[in-house]
Amino acid sequence: MIEISGLSVHFGGVCALDGVSLRICDDVAGIIGPNGAGKSTLVNVLSGFVRPSSGSVLVEGTDLLSLSPHRRARWGLSRSFQKVQIVDDLRVEDHVQVVLDARQRTRHEREKTTRDVLAYVGLTSRAGALGAELNQFERRMTEIARCLAAAPRIVLLDEPGGGLSEVETARLRAVIEGIRPRFGAQVLLIDHDVDLIRAVCGRTAVLDFGRLIAFGPTRTVLQDDQVKAAYLGR
Ligand SMILES: Nc1ncnc2c1ncn2[C@@H]1O[C@H](COP(=O)(O)OP(=O)(O)OP(=O)(O)O)[C@@H](O)[C@H]1O
Ligand SMILES: [Mg+2]
Questions:
Q1: Average pLDDT over residues 143-158
Q2: For the segment 201-215, what is each residue's pLDDT rounded down to a tens digit?
Q3: Which helix (H) or strand (E) holds 207?
Q4: What is the pLDDT of residue 105?
Q5: DSSP per-residue letters across 97-146
């Protein structure tokens, strides 16, 4: 359960989030909205990259904003980035291993976790490939594998479908749908692909100019006139 109350973020004169309140309990919840609506800003606030000017966030009863970013990660908050963060000369398995705390796990456990999450996202045969050798889909999957390796309770995915083909999006969909049953984590999915959102998100929030303009069952939200005008019609 993620409880967001009165969250506001200002960048100079820009109000990126304007008093957003949301209670999210779905296995997979969606966040949509036009470019610049504040979606990534919301993820950045949750993960600790951006400090809000007001508001609070409770995750399973924990006051998230009182924790430093690395404590949030240790608590079980994982995220992927809209602009993938892949290092050219690191191997796929190294990208995953970096999030595994050497103090808490033996080398054997770290290797097993890495193998498991890479198998889950379909990258077993690419474990030794360098970042520079990966296509966009493999980059996205490496980021998701890294999220899952960290024993997450909440996974924030910022446009994981960006730049993927139809076939790749279908594979991404299966990966997202399996996260709750397989790893026990709640997923917050930002994406511009409305078909993907419709397929996997129980409920969906819509942001427009930093304001929450709709939140409810995904099918209902996607038929809302205000949502269509703000987003789908563009
Ligand atoms: N670090 C920053 N400094 C200044 N302005 C920012 C910063 N980050 C975001 N903004 C502004 O805040 C607003 C919301 O941006 P945000 O990136 O959250 O939108 P978004 O919904 O993720 O858009 P997109 O679909 O294009 O990814 C935009 O006007 C953006 O220009
Ligand atoms: Mg964004």
A1: 96
A2: 999 999 999 999 999
A3: strand 203-208
A4: 79
A5: HTTS-TTTS-HHHHHHHHHHHHHHTT-GGGTT-BGGG--HHHHHHHHHHH
pLDDT tops 70 at residue 108? yes
Domains and CATH numbers, the chain: 2-232 (3.40.50.300)
The count of other CB atoms within 10 Å of the CB of residue 211 is 16
Instruction: Please name the residues in contact with 186: beta carbons below 8 A apart, sequence gap of 6 or more.
Output: 1, 2, 24, 25, 26, 27, 28, 29, 153, 154, 155, 180
Number of the ligand closest to the Cα of 41: 1
pLDDT score at 231: 74
Ligand 1 binding pocket mutation candidate from 8, 10, 39, 232 (most atoms within 8 A of CB): 39
Residues 6+ away with beta carbon under 8 Å from 182: 120
Give me the pLDDT at residue 232, please: 60
pLDDT digits (tens, 9 = 90+) for 154-179: 999 999 999 999 999 999 999 999 99
Res 165: pLDDT? 96
Residue 233 pLDDT more than 80? Answer: no
H helix or E strand, kind and range, residue 158: strand 154-158
Q: Give the CA count within 13 Å in the CB-facing half-sphere of 78.
A: 23
Largest Cα–Cα distance in the chain?
54
- Ligand 1, residue 37: give the atom nearest the CA: 21
Task: Give the predicted TM-score (pTM) of the model.
Answer: 0.95
Whether residue 200 has its Cβ less than 6 Å from ligand 1: no
Q: Locate all alpha helices (DSSP H) within 27-91, ordered by sequence.
A: 39-47, 69-75
Is the CB of 14 within 6 Å of ligand 1? yes
